[in-house]
TrEMBL record:
Domain TonB-dependent receptor-like beta-barrel, first and last residues per copy: 338-813
Record keywords: Cell outer membrane, Ion transport, Iron, Iron transport, Membrane, Receptor, Signal, TonB box, Transmembrane, Transmembrane beta strand, Transport
Xref: InterPro entries: Beta-barrel_TonB (IPR000531), Beta-barrel_TonB_sf (IPR036942), Plug_dom (IPR012910), TonB-dep_rcpt-like (IPR039426)
Domain of life where this protein originates: Bacteria
Intracellular or extracellular location(s): Cell outer membrane
Predominant location: membrane
Organism: Kordiimonas sediminis
Highest classification ranks of the organism: Bacteria, Pseudomonadati, Pseudomonadota, Alphaproteobacteria, Kordiimonadales
Protein name: TonB-dependent receptor
PROSITE patterns xref list: TONB_DEPENDENT_REC_3
Membrane topology: Multi-pass membrane protein
Length: 847
């Protein structure tokens, strides 16, 4: 069944079910308020140090979006909450395909057709409650339903949060069941995007105390159907445009391509068949749908022990792509040409158990979780022709690519290529930690952590025209069907369908062990010292194989050809193409933290932090290829963070100003690379040492003289610089150049004014503004493109009482095309953008 039809049926069935099991179609709104605010600032309790404390009393940089702010800013999905956080940026190309960056510590965003097993570990950790859900290749795009808060901890958090937290940590904290009160909320909304389709969403929450003061359950479900806004327009492609036949030309970023193997050949005798896309032409073809639920149960065993169990299931369905082709000669600037269907199904199930109690004077927390994620994706791969000089071997007759003394002749089939990608991810995590009493002058948090992540990835690169190619061997028509290397540890040993010219079937395992601790001593009532350390042991392994019908035709099933055999990934080394290659990558050692904080009164806190972080390396799939140019193992990259911060509540608690100034040293920054002049496979490498300097802060003003008014703003100023190249396999931006996804300035400003309207109703108006300076998309020169600055404006007006609420909102009122990701991997510019101007209504009921 086509994904489009399945998506339509999913919408109908889920919306019908919701309509019959909830009270009414209502909407996402801020919590009801009985009266306007009387001045003063909201206190937000965070667990940034794995202890509950007011955000203003925690001597680390932490930005928190409360439940009220999340609702007021209409935050639902990954890009929504990142757009509200200066200093936090993202790359990627649509739902479920984003990568988080904090404080500009970025190199590149991976191409998702190979992002899993070949992908770098993220350098920003993502947590759902107590559970790390960070994944290689694709971050989990968790829908922000019924969240209590979002905590962002910029800077290295290596001692408490381990690997992949070297640039920071983002924590999504859910609302827990209330043991004493039955409550519910049903919410929803409809919006209209300029030049695009209508979107609709609905969310329902219920909290039910089964045994008062003892046992309660809480459930939330959501359906968010997001209409498309990018058009797939008519076009044609033929192999005559292949990089093989092209001369050296300038890429959109000003760098030059290498001339093709047959540049300048007389192609008049070649019959180039065209790929046409009339059957796929569609307006607003990039639909997306988030559907899912979360159920949690809280059992208060006694006054010392509680058990919290949570299960969440979520599915993302998308059609089309979320990037545009800026070079198309089309009146609509929201256009692209695709020649095969682009479809994604991304679903996960997650079960977590948290046990909290006391053992003597110690508080103990055990947090264990199991996460299973499956993604099925079809990706149009036709753009590969612009960079793939070997492509004509697979879709052109031998007389074209091996013409001998004569001019090329024969037929080149239509280059309508696609990749069918399947990934299966399983993650087990366990953490056991203890904390000593908060009231003691000497306090400690310590424990152990273990995680085991297995990622199985199968990519079938399908070139339909390859079944008609003739002439490479006597009587040859088409290539032999592809299959696994003999004896290899693939997950699917079956013969691949006709036309699968190349495939990957690789399993990656990431295992992590850690012991951690932080010790705090109050020298005086105002002065405290903290020391932290973490021992870690991370092991990354690959097994499986890749294979090509072309290799089989000429070389047979050669297990070591181009390093495609990845079996037996255990201790020791293997020899590939005469090169001795380590089996697996390991990061083992210590990271440390030191902190001095001074809090002379309840309204003032200043601190200095020294912290270290790391991201484990990985073995390279094409190790030994490219004449040994590709490193066998990518080294661990390391971070040292120096930070001075302040937290100030001023003018009788009407102004809050929190901020920090920081210096970050980055050693052996990792990056992902595709450069056919080195090897025709994606690979990773250590690129450079770098330095990041910056200042960030947030200010909130809630004047007592103007009840109901709150003004808040945040900013980030970054100065990133590549200091030294460390011998990468390709050309990297030179010393003095910026890192990627590192705007020199980001800021936002929001005001909200509430006033009594009639009877028990409260009205509000909320304008907002967000700005980002320009940035770069990569540090690899051939893929490096400048991403323009942007300004976006929003406005919301509405009314609320103790039960009902209604709001009209506008987002991106300036209709800005914010460049979220600029991809030049295939020598053609493809720009992922935000949603155009959107106007909508939200309405809801609490009970």
């Amino acid at each position: 069944m086509p994904l489009k039809r399945k998506l339509s049926e999913t919408r109908f069935n889920l919306l019908s079910s919701v309509a019959t099991t909830t009270f009414a179609i209502t909407a996402i709104t801020a919590p009801s308020m009985a009266a306007p605010a009387e001045g003063g600032l909201e206190e937000i309790v965070v667990t940034a140090t794995k202890r509950s404390a007011s955000m203003q009393d925690v001597p680390v940089a932490v930005t928190a979006m409360s439940e009220t702010t999340i609702d007021q800013m209409n935050v639902d999905v990954f890009t929504d909450y990142l757009m509200q956080l200066p200093g936090v940026s993202s790359g990627g190309a649509g739902p479920g395909q984003g990568t988080i960056y904090i404080r500009g510590m970025a190199s590149t965003t991976p191409n998702l057709t190979t992002a899993g097993v070949a992908g770098l570990a993220p350098n920003v950790a993502l947590y759902l409650d107590e559970q790390p859900v960070t994944q290689v290749g694709r971050n989990l795009d968790v829908y922000a339903a019924d969240l209590n808060r979002i905590e962002v901890l910029p800077g290295s958090q290596g001692t408490l949060f381990g690997a992949s937290s070297q640039a920071g940590t983002i924590r999504l904290i859910t609302n827990k069941p209330n043991l004493n009160e039955f409550s519910g909320r049903v919410s929803g909304g409809i919006s209209f995007t300029e030049g695009g389709e209508m979107s609709e969403k609905i969310e329902a929450m219920i909290n039910y105390p089964i045994i008062e003061d003892k046992f309660a359950v809480r459930g939330v479900m959501f359906v968010d159907n997001q209409g498309g806004y990018i058009d797939n327009v008519a076009g044609t492609r033929s192999a005559s445009e292949s990089a093989r036949f092209a001369g050296s030309v300038m890429r959109p970023n000003g760098t030059m391509t290498s001339p093709g193997f047959q540049a300048g050949s007389d192609l008049s005798g070649v019959n180039f068949l065209e790929a046409r896309n009339e059957a796929l032409v569609e307006k607003d073809f990039n639909d997306a749908s988030y559907t899912g639920f979360r159920v949690s149960a809280l059992y208060d065993v006694n006054e010392d022990w509680t058990v919290d169990v949570m299960h969440m299931r979520q599915r993302i369905d998308t059609d089309g792509v979320f990037f545009i082709d800026p070079e198309l000669d089309d009146s609509d600037d929201l256009s692209v040409q695709r020649f095969s269907p682009d479809e994604t199904e991304d679903e996960f199930d997650n079960t977590a158990l948290t046990l909290t109690g006391k053992i003597g004077a110690l508080e103990m927390v055990y947090a264990g979780a199991y996460l299973n994620r499956d993604t099925d994706q079809i990706v149009d791969y036709t753009d590969y022709m612009f960079v793939g000089q070997y492509l004509p071997y697979y879709i052109c007759d031998a007389a074209v690519t091996y013409p001998g003394d004569a001019a090329p002749s024969g037929t080149c089939q239509a280059p309508n290529l696609y990749v069918a990608s399947e990934t299966e991810t399983e993650v087990w995590t366990h953490e056991l930690r203890f904390t000593t009493p908060e009231e003691h002058p000497l306090r400690a948090t310590f424990g152990g952590f273990y995680s085991d992540q297995t990622l199985v990835e199968r990519n079938d690169f399908t070139y339909p025209g390859s079944t008609n190619v003739i002439g490479y061997t006597p009587d040859q028509i088409g290539f032999p069907q592809n299959g696994a290397l003999p004896g290899s540890s693939v997950s699917d040993p079956s013969v691949r369908p006709p036309g699968v010219i190349f495939f990957n079937d690789i399993t990656r395992t990431d295992k992590q062990k850690g012991l951690f601790g932080e010790l705090t001593y109050d020298v005086t009532e105002a002065l405290s010292l903290t020391f932290g350390a973490r021992w870690h042991d991370v092991d990354v392994r690959l097994k499986g194989s890749a294979n090509s019908s072309f290799f089989n035709l000429f070389y047979g099933y050669d297990a070591d050809f181009f390093g495609t055999n990845l079996d037996e990934q255990f201790d020791g080394t293997q020899v590939i193409n005469g090169v001795e290659v380590p089996k697996g990558a390991e990061a083992k050692g210590w990271v440390f933290k030191g902190n001095v904080s001074y809090q002379p009164n309840d309204d003032t806190l200043v601190y200095f932090t020294y912290s270290e972080g790391f991201r484990p390396g990985l073995p390279n799939r094409p190790a030994g290829a490219g004449g040994g140019a590709v490193p066998a193992v990518v080294r661990t990259d390391e971070v040292t963070n120096y930070e001075f911060g302040w937290k100030l509540d001023l003018f009788d608690n009407s102004v809050r100003f929190n901020g920090s100034a920081f210096l970050i040293d980055v050693k052996d920054l990792q990056t992902t690379i595709f450069d056919p002049t080195v090897t025709n496979l994606f690979f990773s490498d250590n690129a450079a040492n770098a330095e990041i300097k910056g200042i960030e802060g947030d200010i909130t003003w809630a004047p007592a003289s103007v009840p109901g008014l709150t003004v808040s703003g945040a900013f980030s100023i970054l100065d990133t610089e590549i200091k030294e190249l460390v011998g990468a396999s390709v050309a990297i931006a030179g010393p003095g150049e910026d890192l990627s996804y590192a705007p020199s300035f980001q800021g936002n400003l929001r005001a909200r004014y509430e006033w009594d309207w009639k009877s028990d109703w409260i009205a509000h108006v909320q304008p907002s503004l967000a700005y980002s300076a320009s940035s770069y998309s990569d540090i690899v020169l051939i893929n490096r493109a400048k991403q323009d600055s942007y300004v976006m404006m929003g406005l919301a007006v509405g009314v609320t009482n103790s039960k009902y609420s209604f709001e009209i909102f506008g987002e991106n009122l300036t209709d800005e095309r914010a460049q979220l990701n600029n991809n030049l991997v295939f020598d053609r510019e493809r720009i992922a953008i935000n949603r155009p101007r959107t106007i909508g209504v939200r309405f809801g009921v609490d009970f």
